[in-house]
Structures are given as structure tokens and as C-alpha cells.
Specification:
The protein is of the alpha/beta class. Helix content is 39%, strand content 26%. The protein contains 4 helices and 7 strands, in the order ααβααββββββ.
Length: 144
């Protein structure tokens, strides 16, 4: 093998490794921004803070409470083991219930190599609601 071939091979490998490093840094930056940036996902601590604003024994609307989440939903767990406010969590969203709307949610898109995660704004619930609280991560509404 010639010296030129070794240089070309080294250059190609350096480009591939450099591209891999740049791609990983880009996706790490996006992930960290989604957890700690100004536009971030709702954390457990944020959820606990919001749930503590809801009166004890109230109804909390969770439209995602379906299938396996009917018994093991995020709000059920947080209320049972952390806030202990004895909330009734339902996906029916009756009038007078409370609704926590995160400002952003994680959307996953698939390509041929790996999933791509992006933050998207959470669409509002299609019900008349009164805003009670706004935090940097979410809104708390009371359904009319």
C-alpha cells in the first residue's frame, strides 16, 4: 500500500469520526436544552409544585390516562407517594376539574439510523377553561 492511500484513508476516517462527534454534540445539546433550557419539559418537581396548588380531594383531568396508564399514570404516582392530596385523576375531564397543560412535549421522529427528539408546543385542550396558574413549564386550568 502506498503512502498516499494511507493518507487518504486517515483523512476519510478523520472526517467520519469528526462527523460522528459533531452529530453527538448537537443531539446532546438539544437534549440538555429540553431538560434545563428556557423551553423545557415539565419535570417531576414542577408537577409537584403545581399539584400542591390544587385543593385536597379535587379532580385532576389527565386525557392521557388510557390503557396501562389507567392504573399507573404519572399523576397517580405523584399524588399517592409525594403530594398525598387525595386527588381523583380521570380522563373524562368533568366541569370543575383541574387540568395541567405542559407548555412543551417531546415528539419523536424516526429516521433510518436513530430517533430524533424535538420539543413541540402542547396543543390546548378543546374545552372552555379558566387559567389559574402559569409557570415557566406549564399552565394550570380549571375546566368550566
Amino acid at each position: 500500500m502506498t503512502k498516499t492511500f494511507h493518507r487518504i484513508l486517515a483523512l476519510v476516517l478523520a472526517i467520519i469520526i469528526g462527523y460522528s462527534i459533531a452529530t453527538n454534540l448537537y443531539f446532546n445539546q438539544r437534549y440538555l436544552a429540553s431538560k434545563y433550557g428556557s423551553e423545557r419539559l415539565l419535570s417531576v418537581a414542577d408537577t409537584v409544585e403545581i399539584i400542591n396548588q390544587i385543593p385536597v380531594g379535587s379532580t385532576l383531568c389527565d386525557p392521557a390516562k388510557k390503557g396501562k396508564r389507567k392504573e399507573h399514570g404519572q399523576y397517580d404516582y405523584i399524588d399517592t407517594f409525594m403530594t398525598k392530596r387525595e386527588l381523583m385523576i380521570t380522563n373524562a375531564c368533568p366541569s370543575g376539574s383541574y387540568y395541567i397543560q405542559p407548555k412543551f412535549k417531546m415528539a419523536m421522529q424516526m429516521n433510518d439510523l436513530f430517533p430524533i427528539f424535538t420539543l413541540v408546543k402542547t396543543p390546548p385542550l378543546d374545552r372552555p377553561m379558566t387559567s389559574l396558574l402559569e409557570t415557566p413549564e406549564a399552565y394550570l386550568y380549571k375546566i368550566e
